[in-house]
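Name: BTB domain-containing protein
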Amino acid sequence: MPKTASRCGVEASRGAHAFEVADYSLHKGLGVVRFVHSATFDVGGYEWWSVLFYPDGSADTAEDCVAAGLELRTIDAGVVTASSYTFGLICQTTGEPWFVTESRAAEFRANTPWFRSKFMKRTQLEASPYLRDDRLSILCAVTVIKEETWLSEIRALPEVAVPPPDLIATLAGEGADVTFEVKGESIPAHRTLLASRSLVFKAELHEQMKERNEDWIAISDMQPAVFRALLRFIYTDSLPAVDDLNKEDSLEMTRHLLVAADRYAMDRLNLVCAQILSKSLDVESVTTTLGLADRHNCSVLKDACIEFIISSNKMDDVAKTQGFACLKRSCPSVLVEVREKVGKFGKI
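Structure predicted for BTB domain-containing protein:
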């Protein structure tokens, strides 16, 4: 299934401004909400940002605190969104910044042009290394985002084509120590692998070596394509692709593999085939599949067929099929099971 992907985002600009406040002691006593401001600076294409410092605090801070604020000193910008703005102090000894406030988001508008942040207690500031020689430096970091989001064009994700397992092709003839003659076709294989996957193969290979000491075995009751599919399952635990077969031919191959699974006591292959066939039941095929399941000891498929017959409300149609007539002759005991599950089936 083709997959596509796209991506959206916003454009952001980042900037920082250091504002040095000299003669700190002279600014004390300006009064609450009175401030000094920095020169303007540019972030995000807006040239009128300014840092504010309130030595006696702002209206929303305690009287014993200093405060800092950020202002956009223009009324022409419309709405400007700052995804974050943070205030800090620069150590007068090391030059390293220490950010006092956490990152905050804000929208700057013409009627509310600035935002203030509680900074720190005045006594704490005056005892810190950030105030030396009666001066301090405030660092303000700003990230501005634009209102418009951008969307990349939809593109198809690259798909990595993984080839099917090729273990059989890789091992074909390489280290093979037994050959199966199937309807005139020679198919090489490996004894150890076959014996490890099927007790029946194990017994046959042991008997063949014991009695004839030959490296080939003849199989006369199976088509080469079916035997190759059986080997593929033994080697890879998967069935071969059937893209070149129509639906009915594919189901016929599955039926033959169900027979092979019973012959070689391969329970997992038996269940895989049962799953495929149970999903393909219809009025014409259900009795044929039921007889096959009964003859080859596939109880789950047998139950699925019986359930289909008694629950499809098409029992009269099923009874008219050629497969039903064959089932009555070859597997009458199966019909007894059906009658036991639903008494009215006996009317057919």
